[in-house]
Amino acid sequence: MKLSPSKLNSFLIMKLPSAWLCGVRVKHIDESQCEVGVKHRWINQNPFGSMYWAVQGMAAELSTGALVMDRIQQSGEKISMLVARNKSSFSKKARGKISFNCYDGEKIATYIKKTIETGEGQVFWTKAVGVDEAGDEVSVFEFEWTVKAKKL
Fold this sequence. Notes:
By secondary structure, the protein is α+β, with helices and mostly antiparallel strands. The chain is 35% helix and 34% strand. It has a six-stranded antiparallel sheet.
């Protein structure tokens, strides 16, 4: 079963309801890239008239995590995944529609393959860049993922 935006958005309702309520939605996913969008609204605002940083973080993490999930699913193996660390920077108030894009699908595939071949856990960083409707960067999130093939 190939992951699609509609399947991932249904997953949000059941497993990450706070992200779904805040308007986080997968817009596109393929083997190399995932785009997640979220619109600045009353429910996800901060006191400064822009999107709360944690909502941006949910969207950014989903853009990287969906790629990890997709690559694990494509492998056909049982592999655990976990965010170990993250870091972020903010360059502009997030207002309007914000899109977070991660282009690390091939990198992720390399680490999934390595954990399957070696049986050892792998650690790698992914990056999601958030841009507004004008194409201006509003934030950058980096997530350190750990993956490990489960022993049968």
